[in-house]
Amino acid sequence: MNDFQRLALRAAISIREAMLVDPSNQELDLPDKDWNRLQRLLRQKQLAQDHEWRMAERIINTRLIFTMERLATDLRQRTRDLEQSVKSRFPPPDLRLLYEELIALPNEFSEVSIDLRHGILRVVTDEITLEDITLGRFDIVYNWTSEGPGPSYDIHALDPAPSNANSDFVHPHISDGILCEGEAKSGIEAALAQGRFCDFFLIVASTLNTYNDDSAYVTLKEWYGTPCLDCGTSCSDDDLTLCSGCEDPFCHQCCDSCRNCHDSLCSSCLQSCEECSAPHCGDCLNTCSECNHDFCSNCLTDGYCEACYETLSETDPELEEEEDNHYETTHPQQIPTPSTPAETTSP
What we know:
By secondary structure, the chain is of the alpha+beta class. The chain has helices spanning 3-20, 32-51, 54-87, 95-108, 185-193, 197-208, 306-315, 317-330, 341-344; strands at residues 111-115, 120-124, 128-130, 133-136, 138-143, 152-157, 174-175, 178-179, 226-227, 234-235, 240-242, 249-251, 255-257, 264-266, 271-272, 279-280, 286-287, 294-295, 300-301, 304-305. A four-stranded antiparallel beta sheet has the order 1-2-5-6, covered by helices on one side. Strands 3-4 form a two-stranded antiparallel sheet. A two-stranded antiparallel ribbon has the order 7-8. Helix 5 packs antiparallel against helix 6 and helix 7 (306-315) crosses helix 8. It is elongated and about 110 Å long. The N and C termini lie far apart (144 Å). One of its GO terms (molecular function) is zinc ion binding.
């Protein structure tokens, strides 16, 4: 028996002892950590809404959804564990099975380690590549002394290649070290309950090598894109527009063009004409000399908006006369010269 086999035997004994603990004798606690995180995220969401930080709000919403789903899953698991402990007790896995599962791990993974002091079983995956995007190796860590209602494991990136859209995500299906198990959930739970640790790590590694666009926290098509500073959507360079005002990148949907000079501008740099509401850049709007509001050139007459011009025309005769002179100059009357009788009478 080599050093690893001796260590695996001691770990198998420790794991079996942990599985022998009657869950009905344990104090029933609630997931306070996730609940407190949920409250903190709600405060952050309100702050982002108050300041109109759209990208920050999008990221917070993603974390809120994940935290609420994890909280609901945790509560369901605690409910199942309590029901199971009340109904019946199942015998723990045989010590030989646990030992054989542990010594089989080096045949499947290039790096395996056991930490008896902290109750940790750890393996390292091969380099993971999803749709030509290299995400690197991942550390799968199982803790058999976890204080939670069931077995606990988390995942960490050893060669992190985070998303450009959100650097918190190192894998499309991992958030805060927790894997979105999807269809693999039942297989993972069964493997751990039966002490099939080699199967457990293989299932998790296989899940890491699988991509589902519908359940991804960040999709692969967004992975190496540049995030739009308004809506947060990650885009390729061809799908981005630089705002002519602030020179920041935005997606095509979050940019519009000035109706006069046709420059592309983000929503923060665009202004609307007070009369027709057409978007313009600041340089293409003029201030009404009377009300000091901004209007496009089509909605101003002699420097006044329509409402101010009509009001001033009623009170200022000179302005009305200027309007009449302007009309006569631009619309000259063509009055034909009357013919004389002598010119119309034949000799």
